[in-house]
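Its record is quoted verbatim for completeness.
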Amino acid sequence: MIEIRIPKLGLTMEKAMLHHWEFGSGEEVKEGQTILVIETDKVTFEVPSPGDGIIHPIAPEGETCTVEEVVGYLAKNRVEYEQIVKEHPFEGAGNVEVRAPQSISVPGERAASTTSPTKAAENDRIKSSPVARAIAGAHNLDLRAVSGSGPGGRIVRADVLRALEAPAMVSERVVERPTAPMPKQSAAKEAWESIPIQGVRRIIFDNMFRSLSQSAQLTLHTEACAEPLVRLRERLKSNGRKVSYNAVLIKICAMALRLHPRINASVEGDAIRVWRQIHIGLAMEHNDALIVPVVRNPDLKTIREIDTDILGLVEKTRENRLSPDDLLNGTFTVTNLGFAEIDSFTPIIRPPESAILGVGRIVHRPSIRNDIVIAEKQMTLSLTIDHRIIDGAPGARFLKTIKEMVEDPVMMIG
């Protein structure tokens, strides 16, 4: 008999919500297969099976559990399974809903749709990463025909992309239609869907309310010429891979914070803490929820090193491997909606930070140079500050520094 426990994912983690079980009681699982999904501080993490056996959950979905708490068992055979069921009865164990994985989207990448329920369930039983299953589902690809190159033969994103190059492996796409009938004309209003405010949505719900109700937020906007930024990114191209704009922008913000240290601050009780270290969060979407993984000490790293950090965080997000430590101790945040063709917006501060930079898309706009109207790549920068501790003038000077570095990246090394 093997105990299934809530893993400790970070130094500060104390509890997690059991989001859902992937298998019902009495089903056979293999070592490494995802057996349950837990959720903590907006991190969704897939827990692999510690061995081969027959599973028996003893904790219900939606329950908050402590680290190392036993939530289920693995029996080595049917005799042991029956004994476990007798010793640890659980009414809901046999009715656990086996769910297909959700797709995710990150800046610059669209979320994938899923295939039919039958094939999705079959794909979910195969040892594969969530993003591999999502891509396979989007292309109606049967993962049983794909060879895995990951640890223990696990199918990863690259395996699916290689398989998609073979047209014979992709069956005709099934077009799914809404099952709910279109509403009739009526003066009343009827709910199409009721979404509980719980789990990750509850955390976002509470954090955004706390941010706006407990701080005095002021947003400053400016426009910058993005031509030098575009050229810098092209020059940094290495081995056929360009660094992301987010990596360059995080470096710019880090160097600007070094010049304006009081922006890198938080309120703690009756004191304003100005932080020695700079840790910049990058807002992204995951399973229809906002998460902000943190890049550590970008002021001490090169742009390529920052880009490598971002790629690592994105990969961990796709694989549901982010730990609570990946989200902790941010001192500033960058949120970029350029990928969604948004020109400008009003970003909301992430508590307990005191400032956040919103970045719009790079787009050609008319500009006047030497009394001549020309087409120029421009971008909008929006800085929201907590006006309780950052006055408008210092905030404006900080934003001006960011603009100057965007328009003349050499200033980052000055």
